[in-house]
Specification:
The complex is a heterodimer of chains A (365) and B (288).
Chain A: E1 4-13, E2 16-26, E3 31-35, H1 42-50, E4 57-62, E5 65-66, E6 77-80, H2 92-102, H3 107-120, H4 136-149, E7 154-158, H5 166-183, E8 186-191, H6 194-200, E9 203-208, E10 211-216, H7 218-223, H8 228-233, E11 240-247, E12 250-253, E13 258-260, E14 274-279, E15 284-286, E16 299-311, E17 315-322, E18 325-332, E19 342-348, E20 353-356
Parallel strand pairs in A: 3-8, 3-9, 6-7, 7-8
Antiparallel strand pairs in A: 1-2, 1-4, 4-5, 9-10, 11-12, 11-14, 12-13, 14-20, 15-19, 16-17, 16-19, 17-18
Chain B: H1 3-39, H2 44-48, H3 62-67, H4 78-109, H5 115-125, H6 130-144, H7 150-175, H8 178-186, H9 191-220, H10 223-228, H11 237-240, H12 252-277
């Protein structure tokens, strides 16, 4: 097993720089998720680690050794592709044993390792089929099987679940988590789905435009986002982020609506400062239909008109108008609401975030 | 008659019309070939009869027997012609395929300067009719001293076939997902191994069809071969057909018999390779 270190890693295509000198240390046996919107450089970074893209600058170390110029086969890693990339002219057994065959192992040596991996992934009954005879989920498992047969130091996953339907995705997510617990290897997992990242990873790396925005545990990035971008990217539905100005110990929105300035930000802002106020839907709820996490004093009550609701069964997302913009709140133990209905809402300000209006960086300190 | 019966009847009629149409089309395509086979067994009088004699009255293997008889008994050096055809076609096809695979792979996988112009240039060579090349080629070959050699003919056919094989094979390599070669490299392959173990087998049907086309072009080519060959050392089967023409007569039966000898290897090859031509092998490689 191995550590992976990215030191000022750069990727350029001609004159265009797409990854701008990123630093990242992945510990041995750690599960790291790279997330970010399309085009943020996460897949390119993964491909540089895999050796499928040349590195334009900086160093890449696997197990402490610089591997910048080593071909993929010399890096001792396995990768699961978004498209699965199973060899269509080979059976599942041949697909899974291919790397061992290339490494010069005999059929007698290959067979038990393939069988063992197949057993782990419940693929034994499919070993003699071809990829075209398998369902999406089965192909996905074969791709993972092909990776674990090699017993590599590092596993790379490139959006492995994005071609599956929602139900199968949830199922495979659990499988991947179990697999990691079992094989105990270093995993670097690229996804644009923040739910996957949150549920699977030990630490999440949020990327944007070729830079790393924040690295942290799922709790960190959810509860203590470093920037407006991270706050908006992590969480579903996303955090309510509204531009405002500090005046008179209050956060004042464009319409003139105001909220008391949460106490923990009092020393961090000055009057007249442009800010972005952030509040997760969980912290904006109809009175009696939510849980506040701080002191009662931090809960601000205000009547809001319901614009729209999205009932989800155990909860309802409530869209309402405040400060000249639309806010989404989460109603636990929901009851039926009608559009236009006025309800007393609680703003749990102990959980509120403030970001600098110019830089988008957190003002939490 | 209710609507269901009417619809069913309509369906039956349409399917019958479809089959008759297909039969007629196939008949038009196959008839010349069948006529050649038939004519090789019939006396010239019957072949040339006007109005045509549809039902053969007198079938014999005389033409085939004569063909393999010695000089003076209507024989021609068919073995030599066959050997020449085989050497020239197989060698030129193998070379064209090797170049076509390398070129097709490069066009499908790599980015390089003026790629599209080179590709267009290759395609433009296809617009030149082969016969227009015969005179310049004759001059060049006579200076080089390669007239009436296998080498000369092979060179000409390789040049004719390469643009087409590159174009065809490029298309097939494009259909093989790039991910597969990358997965193979991660699985421990060198680039070369990834090509032979993964990409080559998947592009196989395309390479086989390019091979058939190249082989048939070389096997059937007449215009250039008739200019660039002189003797039994290098004359191919299509040129050999001319042996049946004399100053005032043409031995149609003998010619048809030789044509049948020519058709058989091409047919056999097509049948052998046909199963490899079935594409769809790549389904299931990536999400499906």
């Amino acid at each position: 097993m191995a550590t992976v270190s990215l030191e000022k890693l750069v990727k350029r295509y001609g004159a265009v720089e797409v990854v701008h000198g990123i630093d990242l240390d992945v510990a041995d046996r750690e599960f790291i998720a790279l997330v970010g919107p399309s085009g943020c450089g996460k897949s390119t970074t993964l491909r540089m680690i895999a050796g499928l893209e040349p590195i334009s600058g900086g160093n890449l170390r696997i197990g402490g050794k610089i591997v910048n110029d080593l071909p993929p086969r010399s890096r001792n890693l396995a990768m699961v592709f978004q498209s699965y990339a199973l060899y269509p002219h080979m059976t599942v057994r041949e697909n899974m044993g291919f790397s061992l065959k290339i490494a010069g192992q005999t059929p007698e040596e290959i067979a038990p390792r393939v069988e063992e991996a197949a057993k782990t992934l419940d693929l034994t009954h499919l070993l003699d089929r071809r990829p075209s005879q398998l369902s999406g989920g089965q192909r996905q498992r074969v791709a993972m099987g092909r990776a674990i047969v090699r017993q590599p130091e590092v596993f790379l996953f490139d959006e492995p679940l994005s071609n599956l339907d929602a139900k199968l995705r949830t199922q495979m997510r659990v499988e991947i988590k179990k697999l990691h617990a079992k094989v105990q290897s270093t995993v670097i997992y690229v996804t644009h789905d923040q739910v996957e990242a949150m549920t699977l990873a030990d630490r999440i790396v949020i990327m944007r435009d070729g830079h790393i925005e924040q690295v942290g545990t799922p709790e960190d990035v959810f509860q203590r986002p470093n920037s407006k971008f991270v706050a908006g990217f992590i969480g579903s539905p996303p955090m309510n982020l509204k531009d405002a100005e500090i005046a008179d110990g209050h956060v004042v929105f464009s319409s003139g609506d105001r909220l008391p300035l949460p106490s923990r930000f009092r020393d961090r802002v000055t009057a007249g400062q442009r800010v972005t106020f952030g509040l997760r839907p969980d912290d904006l709820y109809p009175a009696g239909h939510g849980i506040h996490s701080g002191e009662d004093a931090d809960v601000y009550r205000h009547d809001l008109h319901v614009i729209l609701t999205e009932p989800l069964g155990n909860e309802t997302l409530v869209f309402s108008d405040f400060g000249g913009a639309e806010w989404v709140g989460r109603m636990l133990n929901p009851r039926r609401l009608v559009s236009g209905e006025a309800l007393p809402f609680c703003f749990d300000l102990s959980q509120a975030h403030l970001f600098d209006g110019e830089t988008g960086k957190t003002l939490r300190g | 008659m209710n609507e269901n019966t009417k619809a069913r009847l309509n369906g039956l009629l349409l399917s019958a019309a479809h089959k008759i149409g297909l039969f007629l089309a196939m008949a038009v395509i196959c008839l010349p070939g069948l006529w050649i086979v038939l004519a090789s067994f019939r006396p010239t009088v019957e072949i040339m009869a006007k109005p045509p004699v549809w039902i053969p009255g007198d079938l014999s293997f005389d033409a085939y027997v004569a063909m393999f008889s010695g000089v003076g008994q209507g024989g021609i050096p068919v073995i030599e012609y066959f050997r020449n055809s085989l050497i020239v076609s197989v060698t030129s096809t193998a070379i064209a395929l090797a170049i076509g695979m390398a070129g097709g792979y490069a066009f499908a996988r790599f980015r390089f300067k003026v790629k599209s112009s080179i590709f267009l240039g290759l395609m433009l060579t296809r617009t030149v009719p082969g016969i227009a090349l015969s005179l310049p080629l004759f001059f060049v070959y006579s200076k080089l001293g390669v007239i009436d050699t296998h080498f000369g003919l092979i060179m000409a056919y390789v040049a004719l076939n390469v643009p087409f094989t590159i174009w065809l094979i490029d298309g097939f390599f494009r259909q093989v997902p790039k991910d597969l070669a990358e997965a193979a490299q991660i699985d421990g392959c060198t680039r070369w191994q990834a090509f032979w173990q993964v990409e080559f087998p998947l592009a196989g049907p395309g390479i086989a069809s390019a091979g058939i086309f190249a082989f048939l072009t070389s096997w059937n080519e007449f215009a250039l071969a008739s200019q660039l060959t002189r003797s039994v050392n290098s004359k191919t089967l299509p040129v050999g057909l001319l042996d049946y023409t004399a100053e005032f007569t043409i031995d149609w039966r003998g010619m048809c018999a030789l044509a049948v000898i020519m058709i058989i290897p091409a047919l056999v090859l097509t049948f052998i390779v046909q199963k490899h031509l079935v594409s769809g092998l790549t389904s299931g490689a990536v999400k499906g």
